[in-house]
Amino acid sequence: MPSPVPPLSLLLLASQLPRAASQSACVVEHCGAQLARCLADTACRGWSLCNAGCGLGTEALACNQRCADLHTPLRGSPAIDAFSICTISDHHCVPQRRQRCAVPRNTLPALELAAFEGDWWVTRGLNPIFDCFDCQRHTFSLGAAGEPKRLHGALRYSVKRDLHCSFPQRCEYVRREVNQSFAQSNATGHLANHGNPPAQLHYADDWYVIAHRPETYILVYYCGCNDADCGYSGAVLYTRSRSGALDAADKAAVAAAARAAGVDGFELSALCTPDNRACPGCGSTGPIFYVLK
């Protein structure tokens, strides 16, 4: 059994974790026990101290996401969950960041869910915080007819340890995977994943499929909300090919769909290009791909 954490240590860490004195007081008053358990847990301690350095600026959200990706065990952490639920969901020590997510104007009026089945690669992305990881291979399957959330996705991606490393260097990565399930709205391209538990900060994602060519590409714009951040958005271009190669007609169709969405800054030319050249299990002849977790 770990030794109890002295109250002074709690105060010192609490003063670093939140970004204002009132938030520090909130953590100490309401979540001291959860903070003590976090300090006694290796993964949670690393995660919390990483977040302590994220500050208040425009880069804070990206920093928070990177801390989670680098320090959260692949199968989760009860200590991290308990501390997050207490400070964010239960007592709002960290105020929710709210913004408006513009819903695209051109969601497909009809979509067969079977179009998603199998493996797809994210080969272009809009939001640099969520959409630009290397080696994003998402595998979709369909549940039984009548299942409320019938479309199931195993969303795998890889987090680079050193952001300055690039192919063909021998870069180290941390393997990540999340699972999502979606309900379809009236057989359209609107897919919803709502009603998630406190450990996932009650997140709700809405995907809007705005372009699709069978077995070639799917263009998805999304809006999301959770107890910490409501109104985040992004987009991904799925292709069956991990290289993302499309012919001229397909590129033109994707570019036109992005423009027609009516979302500021959503242009094909503005999207990042994840690097899928050295992904595990791809038969790559390039550098060794390190999976650390």
UniProtKB/TrEMBL annotation:
**Which SUPFAM superfamilies would you find in this protein's record?**
Lipocalins
For biological process, the GO terms are: xanthophyll cycle
All copies of the VDE lipocalin domain together span 24-276
Q: Which GO terms describe its molecular function?
A: violaxanthin de-epoxidase activity
The record, for InterPro entries, names: Calycin, VDE, VDE_dom
Instruction: Tell me which positions the record assigns to the signal sequence.
Output: 1-22
- Keyword set for this entry? Signal
* Protein known as: VDE lipocalin domain-containing protein
- Domain of life here? Eukaryota
Q: From which source organism is this entry?
A: Emiliania huxleyi (strain CCMP1516)
